[in-house]
Write a structure and sequence with these properties.
The chain is an alpha+beta fold. The chain folds into three domains: 35-99 and 365-475, GROEL, domain 1, CATH 1.10.560; 104-168 and 327-361, TCP-1-like chaperonin intermediate domain (GROEL, domain 2, 2-Layer Sandwich); 173-207 and 225-325, GroEL, CATH 3.50.7.10. The chain contains 17 helices and 22 strands. A four-stranded antiparallel beta sheet has the order 8-15-14-9. It has a four-stranded parallel beta sheet with strand order 12-11-10-13, sandwiched between helices. Helix 1 (18-24) packs across helix 2, helix 2 (30-45) packs antiparallel against helix 3 (50-69) and helix 4 (74-95) packs across helix 12 (370-383). One of its GO terms (cellular component) is chaperonin-containing T-complex. Residues 485-514 are annotated as: Disordered.
Length: 514
Amino acid sequence: MLKMLLDASGGIVVTNDGNAILRELDLAHPAAKSMIELSRTQDEEVGDGTTSVIVLAGEMLHVAEAFIEKNYHPTVICRAYNKALEDAIAVLDKIAMSIDVKDRATMLGLVKSCIGTKFTSQFGDLIADLAIDATQTVGVDLGQGLREVDIKKYIKVEKVPGGQLEDSKVLKGVMINKDVVAPGKMKRKIVNPRIILLDCPLEYKKGENQTNAELVKEEDWEVLLKMEEEYIESLCLQILKFKPDLVVTEKGLSDLACHYLSKAGVSAIRRVRKTDNNRIAKASGAVIVNRPDELQESDVGTGAGLFEVKKIGDEFFAFIVDCKDPKACTVLLRGASKDLLNEVERNLQDAMSVARNIIKNPKLVPGGGATELTVSATLKQKSSSVEGIEKWPYEAAALAFEAIPRTLAQNCGVNVIRTMTALQGKHANGENAWIGIDGNTGAIADMKERKIWDAYNVKAQTFKTAIEAACMLLRIDDIVSGIKKKQAPGAGQGPTKPKVETEADADGEQILPD
C-alpha cells in the first residue's frame, strides 16, 4: 500500500519506501529516533530492506519485553541475540547461491523481486531494465573480480514531467538542462563532436580586489579596451586550435567569446554544474581543463557519437549521447505528474542499489520470507544446545525472525495463522530452504521457481542492523531528560533537582517537551 505524507513545507509525498516515510517524520521520542536512524543507515549502505530493518528490530524488542519483565538482565538477552545473529549469518552463508552478473535474465529477475513491493512493479520490467542498464554502464573494474559502481556521482536521474512512463530510458551518455549560448548562430546537432571541457571563464578577468586605474589620455582607454578584446581573442584561438565542435564551460562566457566561437562554427554551453561536467568527462572521454593555454590533444573528448539540443516540454535539454564506452549515464524519466515521478525515482534508486549490490557481491538468498523462516527454524533447533539462561532469549530471537514472513502474509490478505503454520511445518524438518510466500497471490511456493530473490548483503545488513539496534535499546535503563520544563509562573524559585526517570515511567509523558 502507498502512504501519502504531508511534509513540513506543505508538499505531498506519495510513497511506500520505508526510509522515505520515516525521513519525513519528526518524533520527539528518543527511542523512536534511533529506530529511524536504522532505516537511514540501511538505505545508505545497501539501499533496500529499509522497512524490514524496522520490522525486525521492533519484533526483537517486542520478544525481549517478556524477559525484562521476568527480571532477566539486558546483557544476558543481548548476549543471546548476538549469538543468534552469528548463527543467522552462518545460515545465510549456507543457503546463499552465487550467480553470474553477466547473465541478464537472472539480474532482471533479481532486481524485479527486490522492487516487487514498490509502486512501480505494476509497470513490469521497466524500472528493473533501467536500473540494470544504468549500473552496468557505470561499473568500473577494480581488478580481482571486484566492480565498483558509484551511483551518486555518475548516474543522474532527470525527471521530465510529460509523456508516458514507457518513454523513460537510459541514455548512453549525458543530458543537461541547458541550451547552446547563442541559439540560431550555433549548431544544435553535431555528429561525432570533438568536445572540450573547461572550468574557467571565457571572459575578461576582473581584478581580485578593486582596482582603480587613472587614465590621463583618451587613447589609453582605447588601448585598455583593445587589451581586453585581445585577451579574449587569444583565449578563443587557443581553444580553436584544437578544432572542437563543442565547448562546455562551468563558468561564464562573454558575448565576445561567443562571437568568436560561433564564427568558427563551434557550439558552446556555459555555466554547467560541476557534477554534470564530471559526467560529460566520464561519458565522452574528455579531460576537464583549468586554463585554455594548457589544452592538449589528449584532453579533447571524441567518445560521444552525437550532440544535440532537443526541446522537451517547454525546456531545452542538451544531449551528449551514443558514447562509445560511457562511464557515466543519465536516466531520463518521463511521467504524468511530479509525485509519480518522485516515487518512480525513489524506486529506481532502490533498484539501482540492488543491482549495485549484486555486481559487488554476486550472491543470492531466497526472498518471500523464505530466508527468515530458514534462519528461524535453524535457530530453534540450535537453541536446545545453548547452555544456561541464554537459551530462552535465543529461542525468542528465532521466533522474532518470523515477523517478516508474517507481515508478508498479512499484506497478501491470506489467513495468517494457517499460512504461518504451514510454512513453519515445511521449514521445521529443514528439507527445502526455498519455500516462502508469493507476495502477489499469498500462495506458498518455491522461491526458486517463482524467481523471488534477495541480495545476500541486503539480508545480512538487515539482520546485523536490526539486532545490534535492538541490543542497544535494550541496554538503556534510564532516560534523563536534559530539557528544561516550563515553570508555572510563581512556582518555587528554589533550586530544582534534576528529575531521573525510572524504567517504570519511561513511557510517561514527562520526557516529551510540551
